[in-house]
Known about the structure:
The complex is a heterodimer of chains A (331) and B (58).
Chain A: H1 3-14, H2 21-28, H3 35-49, E1 55-64, E2 87-88, H4 91-103, E3 108-113, H5 120-136, E4 140-144, H6 150-159, E5 163-165, H7 175-178, H8 184-197, E6 200-202, E7 205-207, H9 213-226, E8 230-235, H10 252-265, E9 270-273, H11 277-290, E10 296-298, H12 310-319
Parallel strand pairs in A: 1-3, 1-10, 3-4, 4-5, 5-6, 7-8, 8-9, 9-10
Antiparallel strand pairs in A: 1-2
Chain B: H1 16-21, E1 38-42, E2 45-50, E3 54-57
Antiparallel strand pairs in B: 1-2, 2-3
Bound molecules: iron/sulfur cluster.
Amino acid sequence: MSEILDRARAQVLTDGVGLDEAQILEVLRSPDDDLPELLQLAHDVRMKWCGPEVEVEGIVSLKTGGCPEDCHFCSQSGLFASPVRSVWLDIPSLVEAAKQTAATGATEFCIVAAVRGPDKRLMDQMREGVKAIRAEVDIQVAASLGMLSQEQVDDLVEMGVHRYNHNLETCQSHFPNVVTTHTWEERWGTLKMVRESGMEVCCGGILGLGESLAQRAEFAAQLAQLDPHEVPMNFLNPRPGTPLGDQPVVEGKDALRAIAAFRLAMPRTILRFAGGREITLGDLGTRDGLLGGINAVIVGNYLTTLGRPATADLELLQDLKMPVKALSATI
Amino acid sequence: MFCDRCGEPAAQGDHRGCDAARALEPPRYCPDCRRRMKVQVVPTGWTATCVEHGTRTS
Ligand code: SF4
């Protein structure tokens, strides 16, 4: 067994202190033979510092496609020859999506827009949509609308948005290879404003963007420094027409090692399975991830791609005797 | 008729990869005219609308 796992057991499981960048890299480089023990340790850490509950969330795209930014993985950029066309969701359909999400037992509903940052039209649509959802549906509303001004942060707080998602996507050193129309530091600036506003910070990224293992460790350490309430972990699902359309998907064992490493870097965070898990890990890997550090899932479809049916994930949670976090526990 | 994932003629080329991918993707091209459709994905399904051939749903 690797010595790093012994150290992690004492440092993270016993003392609740996350691994640093060098230690995370050691975990990411640990041999396949150690994977079962690594996953068990990450699971023990999650159970000790977070508990058995799993937070369930649904997401929906309020404004799809036509984004002016050039994130190389994204089919919603208007700068690539992607088949995704621009479309807006109307308010009744948004409320219906929130109802369907709540019906799965989910406590979180995240409204997402493909924009650099919101304009007045989008903020008006958000105000109307959040109000309508809060009037009709028992669910927490989160948002993901790109980079914000201070005024927009304040507006979202006033609307009752309780959590804001803004992914750093990858580590600082790799970001310029993936996005050229804005900087990692600009994203960090929005996250700081969100944190200071009292909204919960949701920040993660995508693995498999061509980053090295050292850069994966750098990313986990940078997220740990940010200390978000939630870290969504996506795995690249290469999209036709994007610059990363031919990138290979992350190998299943590497994905599981990364999940465990991120858990050992952030023992108390909500670590969420997000997009790409179906093609990277399949059904068996989803189970392994939930037994290897994950304590939250996005159920149902994603923004432009489809996920497993919500019932499949809910049955799996039941099977694993992991209760779905109740709404009363989140307020 | 056109492949609703890649928009190429359905009878030409190999679309087995497209068929497999479609398990986790909504259609993007109208199979009747290969126009790009306006597609809205929601947590429990999708709708895809061709300006000429109307709306399909999951
Ligand atoms: S800012 Fe968001 S929607 Fe726009 S290209 Fe980047 S990831 Fe896609």
